[in-house]
Design goal:
- With 74 residues, the protein is mostly helical.
- 62% of the residues lie in helices and 0% in strands.
- It has 2 helices and no strands.
- It has helices spanning 2-40, 65-71.
Length: 74
């Protein structure tokens, strides 16, 4: 009986983690689209790079999304 209870708890934990993962993914998409809108708006200070200045890469930001979705993480 103890094994069944442990399996049930693990299943519930898995479902909770999947739900949190989906919510986090939605939040990330919202933030990315908000930032993209701000980059297009010249009235938002700091959203556009200075002319002639290359954008600096931030570790983990420009990861290949296909690889992330297949592997489950960066």
């Amino acid at each position: 009986m103890e094994h069944e209870e442990q399996a049930d708890r693990m299943h519930e934990d898995t479902e909770k983690m999947e739900q949190h993962s989906e919510q986090l993914g939605e939040r990330i998409e919202d933030i990315e689209s908000d930032w993209e809108r701000k980059e297009q708006d010249v009235s938002v200070p700091g959203a556009q790079p200075d002319p002639g200045e290359e954008e600096e890469s931030v570790p983990g930001v420009d990861v290949d999304e296909d690889v992330v979705s297949e592997e489950g993480g960066p």
